[in-house]
Design a protein that fits this description.
By secondary structure, the protein is an alpha+beta fold. A three-stranded antiparallel beta sheet has the order 1-2-3, covered by helices on one side. The chain has one domain: Sufe protein. Chain: A (Alpha-Beta Complex), CATH 3.90.1010. Pfam families: NifU_N. InterPro entries: NIF_FeS_clus_asmbl_NifU_N. This is SUF system NifU family Fe-S cluster assembly protein.
Length: 149
Amino acid sequence: MSFNQLDSLYRQVIMDHFKNPRNKGVLKDSSLIIDMNNPTCGDRIRLTMKEEDGIIKDVMFEGEGCSISMSSASMMTSLVKGKDVETALKLAAIFSEMIQGREYDASIDLGDIEALQGVSKFPARIKCATLAWKALEKGLQQNGNDEEN
């Protein structure tokens, strides 16, 4: 597959998640609610999660933002739902490396998330792509600290 074909495919995946977001809405019985925004561009997200016994049972998002921000949230929620907290945090770290154009563990299947790989070429858009992931990390880390106290 040529670079242009791959780029076109990635754009289609991103637009599909933007126009048909997965897991959009608010969980009524969430155990975690995380609000974050990107003041430089106005993107905002509310992530609601239900975590039980170290497993992300369900996760949803709502918010406003560009196609990169909202499609990343859709992809992230699809990827981490059903995963244990440790795996979700590992996926967030891998995504962070990938989106910054650094070496990352390519043996891990990131699914549709790989469509965002090209964002690394546009530093101003990296914050858009990472907003949902930062909310995930913040929520899971806060929840872990709450359980220790």
